[in-house]
Amino acid sequence: MTMLANTSEGPVHKNKSLIIVPMKTPGVHVARRIEKMGLHSSDTAEIYFDNVRVPAKNIIGEEGMGFMYQMMQFQDERLCAAASGREFLFYIEKPTRIRISPPPPSPPPPHSRRIDEHDHPRDDRVLPPATHL
Fold first, then answer.
1. Residue 117 appears among annotated catalytic residues
2. What's 117's DSSP letter?
3. What sign does the dihedral 19-7-52-74 (CA atoms) show?
4. Residue 118 pLDDT more than 90?
5. Quick one: three-class SS letters along 54-101?
6. CA 30 to chain CA mean position, Å
7. Residue 63 included in any domain
8. How many domains does the chain fold into?
9. Residue 112 CB-half CA count within 13 A
10. At 44, which CATH number?
11. pTM over 0.85
């Protein structure tokens, strides 16, 4: 398994490393598998560690960069989730659009006129000539 663990002192975003921990390493105990609704290809379980030691060669990438690597992976997961949900959205969009779209606008009543066709009570007044400065 891969785990994110504190490997040094310092700022919390720079003191974590990604480490490969083989499940058969002495001190790794799987208590129980947890059933979940999605992502059945990835097991979820309660895992306990009792004085587990792994060699430094099991660190993935640079020491202290684990948090950054994990954040980059989360971005990839979000992109994949958005792409995989796209087809489902197209599948449900058409029936939904038909059901909840507002009706088309009604034609205007026959007695309506454009705004420039309305009578304006002050149109007959005489305005003084414009003066130029």
1. no
2. G
3. negative
4. no
5. CCHHHEECCCCEHHHHHHHHHHHHHHHHHHHHHHHHHHHHHHHHHHHC
6. 31
7. yes
8. 1
9. 6
10. 2.40.110.10
11. no
